[in-house]
Amino acid sequence: MTDIAKIRNFSIVAHIDHGKSTLADRLIQFCGGLSEREMSEQVLDNMDIERERGITIKAQTVRLSYTAKSGEYYVLNLMDTPGHVDFGYEVSRSLSACEGSLLVVDASQGVEAQTLANVYQALDADHEMVTVLNKIDLPAAEPDRVKAQIEDVIGLPADNALAVSAKTGLGIEDVLEAVVTELPAPTGAVASPLQALLVDSWYDAYLGVMTLIRVRDGTIKKGMKIRMMASGAVHTVERVGIFGPKPVAVDQLGPGEIGFINAGVKTVSDAKVGDTITDDRRPCAEPLEGFKPSVPVVFCGLFPIDAADFSGLREALEKLSLNDSSFSFEAETSAALGFGFRCGFLGLLHMEVIRERLTREFNLELISTAPSVVYQLTMTDGSKMDMHNPADMPEVTRIQSIEEPWIKATIMTPDEYLGQVLSLCVERRGEQIDLTYAGSRAMVVYRLPLNEVVFDFYDRLKSVTRGYASFDYQMDSYISGDLVKVSILVNGDPVDALAMIVHREQSEYRGRAICARLKDLIPRQMFKVALQAAIGGKVIARETISALRKDVTAKCYGGDVSRKRKLLEKQKEGKKRMRQFGRVDIPQNAFLEALKMGDN
Questions:
Q1: Which of 99, 238, 339, 464 has its CA 20 to 30 A from that of 379?
Q2: Are the C-beta atoms of 372 and 298 separated by less than 8 Å?
């Protein structure tokens, strides 16, 4: 067991693409965690989807051994965290298991919105911070300007910020020295009863449920009987280990250490993230403060294309919710799509990632419905209800008012794009709260309705600012608005997967845009297909997909024109009959594509 004074637990926080995972790679390499042959780019991003998109989705832990310049030997537990706003829950969980943070800022881009958000999370967790300026080797790097920006915008002293290049390995030893000298050691007592925080859990096909724990007091060893304090379940520890970054079995974990255990946990509900683990024979007095439960803000329905996959989808969702406790799901049925699940996510990227993981890791083919937010309805009889799905909207005559969630958004942008950003926010019904400057970058704070943000706000923001703006938000409050339900009809049949709730002023524009996109996305049939957007019984937009035509007059050479006309009339009758009974199959990609309004 390591001496607690020689342990340092720290996480790396930064905005997206500021070099957290690359810095983690260099630290692992410097400490000899992996041999040259085993090293790869972003070694801690072990999901295919993380490597393809170049983003971190799951926070990963690694234990490193470091001999300081003073000759003393230290054990470092490093947590690489995601930078994207949708995975903020991963960040907050990781921070609660550490005592300090490395704040990584890109020396050319400077402070961004997510840098701010992650710093505030670290300060909320009482972390000591070490500021690191990364990408110092870039020709565009301006360390002095960025240091001034860190002091102005964040309020942290930046005179002794470390200048490093995670790509080339410049200044990596200085970072490790700062970790052991400036960050505090954890506290805890070996003699106290076991008290450990369950930081994360995931499903392994061979070993069952694996749990990542941070020991506060006492020790945990193989063969010990442990109790989960929230569920009361008792298990026997079968294996104790650390990630270095490969799993390595150890005899025991003591105070301040981070590692994993296998305890024969069979069901997902027994390994709740944020639970406290204690000794069954000698329990601790009270549980640790867990994590605030995450509140999903975006909902969508997931339905298997083949109805027989329904139970497979349920199992897959249970395994994923063990691994990612920030999304929720419940069963629902749809007239068009059959049995499926209504799932809640922290944002659109989170939704896309979960969908992709279900497809890749569990070989499921899924249809997802339009993303929507939670509306609060006040009925005429005074009762209140939450509405997750636009298809569940009751009769308009029974509704007194509809309230929608609003967010407080922080957008940071170079000065030259400020005009486009402000007009985009106004177009999305935003209300400006604040506008300040940090050097040549403007920081705008806006209140925006969440349903205007979930579709394509982030894509539009990136395109109007050439990718230079950054965006972060938190929930604000519910405000009542003039909202209507727009139904999409294909060949006269409503498609509940595409129903959406929008502000009355924008209903016609949204309806036209969706019909125009569906016209390109739905393949032509043997008969004419009408696409309509309607509010109640009133059609507000229409497009027609023309029929595929077979040339029935090809065999008529010359002769009277009435012969040709007779054949065409016969074809027309056939098409009319087909249209009465014909079903239009909407391809799966059409659902999501139709909702990305883009710049039109």
A1: 339
A2: yes
